[in-house]
Structures are given as C-alpha cells and as structure tokens.
Amino acid sequence: MSTPASPILAVRPLGFPWETADPFLFCAYHDDAYPRGNGKMGPAGSLAGRDIGQDFSRKDGWSMYHGDTVPGFPAHPHRGFEAVTIVRRGLIDHSDSLGAVARFGGGDVQWVTAGRGIVHSEMFPLLKTGEDNPLELFQVWLNLPQRSKMAEPHFTMLWNEQVPRRVLRDGEGRRTEVAVIAGRFGDMAPLAPPPDSWAADPRSNVAIWTIAMEPGAAWTLPAAEDGGTRRTLYFFKGDEAMVAGQLVEGPVAISLQADAEVPITTGDTGAEFLLLQGRPIGEPVAQYGPFVMNTQQEIMQAMQDYRRTQFGGWKFGASGPVHGAEPERFARYPDGREERPGGY
C-alpha cells in the first residue's frame, strides 16, 4: 500500500517581511517591546544610536521605524492594492487623505483599499507612562486585480468585538481558538471585506485566520475548496509542532496543499499561526515601493499622479498625527460617521 503524499509542500524560515504567495504581496510582522511612554506618546529614554526616520534596528527590542518622536509610519502614499492590519497588542493611530481617522488595537482589524490612491499615516502612540507599551501586529498586503487597481479608495474597521471567533477543544479539553478576518470557517462567515477587494469575490477563496493553540492541543485545519488556491501557514510563536505528521520547528512558513486536511499537534509551549490563502490573481505584478500595478508604465503614471495630486492632499498639520491621551478606540469615516466600540 502506498503512503499518502504529505500536504506540506515547503517549509521556509521567516524573514522580514514574510514571503507570501499570489494574491498576497507580503506580510510584515511587528512585535515591539516598547518601554513606558514619555508623556508625549514617544518612548521614555534616549533615542541615541538609532537612525531616526529610518530606524528598523530593533535595538532594545523595538524600532522607531519612520517616526522621529512617536514610533510608526508618518504620511505615505499607496496605489493598486489593499492593506489589512491586524493589531494583537497596543494601539495604532490612523489618519488618511480621505479624511478618515481612527485609533484601534487589541484585536481590531483595519482594512484599507488603496485603489487609485490614498495617503495615510500609521503611528504607534505609547500612552502608558507607568508601564511598558508592547505592540504586536500583522500588516498583510493583498493585491487587487487589474479591474480594481483604480477603484475608489475605501477605509473600514473590523472591531475586535465583531471579529468572528471559534473555540474548539480536543479530546483532552485542550483549546484552539480561530479568529476569522476573511474567508468562511465551517458555518462561520467573516465580516464583509471592502467592495472592490479580491476577497469580496467568493470564487477567490481568500482566507485570513489567526490560530492560537494551547500546549499539547490537537486540531485539524480543514481542507479548502481548491480551485488553484494557494495556502500558507505561518508558524510564528512556539518552539515546535507536529504538522501533518512532520515535526516543524518555528518560526517558519509552511506551504500547504490547499485541498487537504492538515492535522496539527502543538508542543510544550503551544503555538500560534497565521493562515493566508487565496486563489491567485494570476496577473503581472509591477511594484515600486508603495505602488503595485501591472506594468512599469502604470508605475510611472502612479508616480506622476502622486506628484501632481498628492492623492487628495494631506489635511493634517503633522505628517504623523496622534489622537490624544485617552485610550478609547474610535473611527471617524470620510462621511463624518463615527464608531466607538469602547475602551482599550
């Protein structure tokens, strides 16, 4: 009797950013052990030894990125793709050229369709002055098909309290929790993605899930509808796990056959995973920094358009605005509508 082929296609170490497969462009994982704040939303203590404005050093376990006094990413443009930001710990202050502002974190998800062009800032305010301010997030870049590259920009929030989650227990009662940002999980449907997203078409089979498993927990990742779907499981926390009968040591990216079930059993430290899957868009990709189009000519046009229009312009006094000392999460949309899901 022949042995069934393993659903594991490849195992690769994780770098920065994480390598992804079409329809995704990349995933950046930030896990910064920020110290207590200085009362001005920056880190207490000296910034000496950092390349301010370009600090990706992870000195002392954290970076300033492109911020100079508050860590984060001041105003910068995008065109031609979507950014899905999943904040597990800490807070982000968002502002954009549509006029939207938001403070979100602690399980919230922001989904921005850049489309024909948007400028936004993503700052990491360190509100706590008496204790540390850890920040942990994923930012996933999801490509747009050619027909949607010049769609109207769109900003939406998927609040922690609304994100569908399911807790499952194995025969020993050990817990696995699946949070569903995109894609169905059994009979559990996700919140609606933006209208022009590749994820808005059920045929795209896009899924973005986070999976947290207790030490020794056993769970089986269900098979996806194939249709050429590409599936990657990012094992980013935990020492080791048995994946489809193979011992895997983290942190790694595991490429999987999408239409196969994958049994997973964790080791003594438990494990956390990010699942990204989707049917490939299958179109040429031309990228220059924050612009992702199909041809180099379209990249040149994006640069010219940005120089000419600034994608609507920047309506804030600072390039990296922050939204006050109160930790309450909120969003104000371009039409003036406000959402306040509660405190942090």
Automatic annotation (TrEMBL):
Annotated stretches, region: Disordered:
318-344
Q: What residue spans carry the Basic and acidic residues bias annotation?
A: 325-344
Q: Which domain of life is it from?
A: Bacteria
Pirin N-terminal domain ranges (all copies): 67-142
Q: Where is the Pirin C-terminal domain?
A: 209-312
Give the species this sequence originates from: Ramlibacter monticola
InterPro entries associated with the record = Pirin, Pirin_C_dom, Pirin_N_dom, RmlC-like_jellyroll, RmlC_Cupin_sf
**Record protein name field:** Pirin family protein
The portions of this protein that span the membrane are none
Give the family, as the similarity comment puts it. Belongs to the pirin family.
